[in-house]
Design brief:
65% of the residues lie in helices and 8% in strands. It comes from Pseudogemmobacter lacusdianii.
């Protein structure tokens, strides 16, 4: 519960910013991962953005309709979908990033840079623990 409360406390600072740009948290993670990593297949994108595959499928349709991502077939395996951010998606990232950085700076100021660094390190270590089934959490990207 403490982790969920902390996440909510942080995300409530970002939601108005994302809402103002007509995008939700999960959509932001998807386009941000594509901007940072380049074209990815849907499975890899879901893992890196920490989104379940069925949710990603619905999201990609919406992001495609808005012109933020494009879908293409893998040249080696036509069954695989490759997703790429568009110029419009990159412009959205560029518009939101300075404002998101201001939120991060306010968090640094309020909570302390060292404490945030320590918290991130602890959360990454916790995420790296194998589950009871022996699986590790997916490659994590920051929420915002």
């Amino acid at each position: 519960m403490a982790l969920l409360r902390a996440r909510e406390s942080v995300m409530m600072r970002f939601r108005p910013l994302l809402d103002a740009h007509g995008i939700n948290e999960q959509q932001w993670r998807v386009i941000r991962v594509l901007e940072e990593k380049g074209p990815l297949d849907a499975t890899e994108l879901a893992a890196r953005a920490n989104i379940l595959a069925p949710s990603l499928t619905r999201m990609i349709r919406s992001l495609s309709e808005r012109g933020l991502v494009i879908r293409g077939a893998d040249s080696l395996d036509g069954r695989r979908v490759i997703l790429t951010i568009t110029e419009e998606g990159s412009r959205l990232i560029a518009a939101v990033t300075p404002q998101a950085n201001a939120v991060y700076a306010a968090l640094d100021q309020a909570f302390g840079v060292e404490r945030i660094a320590e918290l991130v390190a602890l959360l990454e270590a916790l995420s790296a623990l194998p589950s009871e089934s022996g699986q590790r959490a997916s490659a994590s990207e920051p929420d915002v």
